[in-house]
Amino acid sequence: MTSALVTAAQPVTTHGFLSSSGVEIAFLLVGLVTLGAAVVTVTTRQLVHAALWLVVALGGLAVEYLLLTAEFIAWVQVLIYVGSVVVLLLFGLMLTKAPIGRSPDANVPNRLPALGVAAAAAAALVWVVADAFRTTWIDLDGAPQGTTKVSGEILFRHWVLPFEALSVLLLAALVGAVVLSRLRNQQEQQEQGQQEEEQS
Amino acid sequence: MHLLYPAVLAALLFCTGLYGVLARRNAILVLMSVELMLNAVNLNLVAFDVWLRDALHAGQALTLFTIAIAAAEIGIGLAIVLLVYRNRGTADVDRLRDLKESAAAPDPDHEQKAEAAA
Predict the structure, then answer these.
(1) ipTM exceeding 0.85, yes/no
(2) Is the residue at A31 inside a domain?
(3) Which Enzyme Commission number(s) are listed (chain A) (predicted)?
(4) 3-state SS, residue A151
């Protein structure tokens, strides 16, 4: 009887308002690193450094997914974001001849409105979220929520049609990027040909 | 784990990305800030999916779709930015003013564009 009472009362008593379990401490520390890296990403004047700090922010988010037991999404995050998106961004920076050192014109001259909008949005969002989910806890015990097995089953049982539509979208994006890059070359060649004809 | 940790972190990351979108001039830095905002949304989706213990895991499926769409978006966006850079010689978003209405102020880019077109 008493043991049943104790186990029934267990979920209530184990949750302090800021209960300091190991997962929460790890989440908080990684979250601070992630947020700091994100802030440096949007404020640094060195363009390449911004891309590299973005790697830290996205990697920190992958660790947060791992702490939330969503393993598959964590590895997808590492593969796609850290692996390919940041590389694409670095290529973009280099192809647009980004200066390696400090670039004084990385930001708009008057940043106060942007700062005001961001601060107001942050205050409103944090206030609403904190008010709404003050007494909500995620139960991380038990089986992990996002192992590769679980993700594969739900993705190919319940979400097959959106998945296939997504593959069509990716193909369309690929073709679109190729077309965007090729059109200009043909135009340039035509223009060069016209110029040569005019000169001759 | 308290739900507030991921929710507040996602809100703050989103606002960091919002600041970056508004304050950056270089188009590629704007794209980076957009990626930060998308990642904040992903963190929210995963956290709420794990909290609700959804049988279909709609949050995680939607997160995967968001990641794929973000990859497509960054590919197309970079292609457009590179095209703009080749046409104009700049990737600053606040110097692309072709659709601005008032013709009173002379546009310094217009002459460059005319030269490039000629």
Answers:
(1) no
(2) no
(3) 7.1.1.-
(4) helix
Mean pLDDT for all residues in chain B: 86
Answer whether residue A62 shows pLDDT above 50.
yes
Burial class (CB in 10 A: 0-12, 13-18, 19+), A92: buried
> Within a 10 A sphere around the Cβ of A144, how many other Cβ atoms?
16
Q: Which residue of A has its CA nearest to B24?
A: A107
Domain count, chain A: 1
Instruction: List pLDDT tens digits, range B1-19.
Output: 889 999 999 999 999 999 9
Asked, for residue A176, whether it belongs to a domain, the answer is yes
Contact (CB, 8 A) for A145 and B54:
no
Helices A47-67 + A22-43 axis angle, to 10:
160
Of all residues in chain A, the one with the smallest CA distance to B66 is: A166
Mean pLDDT value across residues B17-35 = 93
Q: Which tokens in the block code for residue A116?
A: 């005001």
Centroid of chain to Cα A101: 26
Q: Is the domain defined by B4-95+105-117 classed in CATH 3.40.50.2300?
A: no
| Domain ranges, ordered by start, for chain B | 4-95+105-117
As a whole-number percent, the residues of chain A with pLDDT over 90 amount to: 52
Partner A, chain B 61-90, Cβ-Cβ below 8 Å: 61, 63-65, 67-76, 78-83, 85-87
Nearest to A157 by CA among B47, B98, B56: B56
Interface contact B116, partner A, CB < 8 A: no
Any domain includes A195: yes
What are A115-118's contacts with CB under 8 Å, separation 24+?
Answer: A115/B19, A115/B23, A117/B18, A117/B19, A117/B22, A118/B15, A118/B16, A118/B18, A118/B19, A118/B22
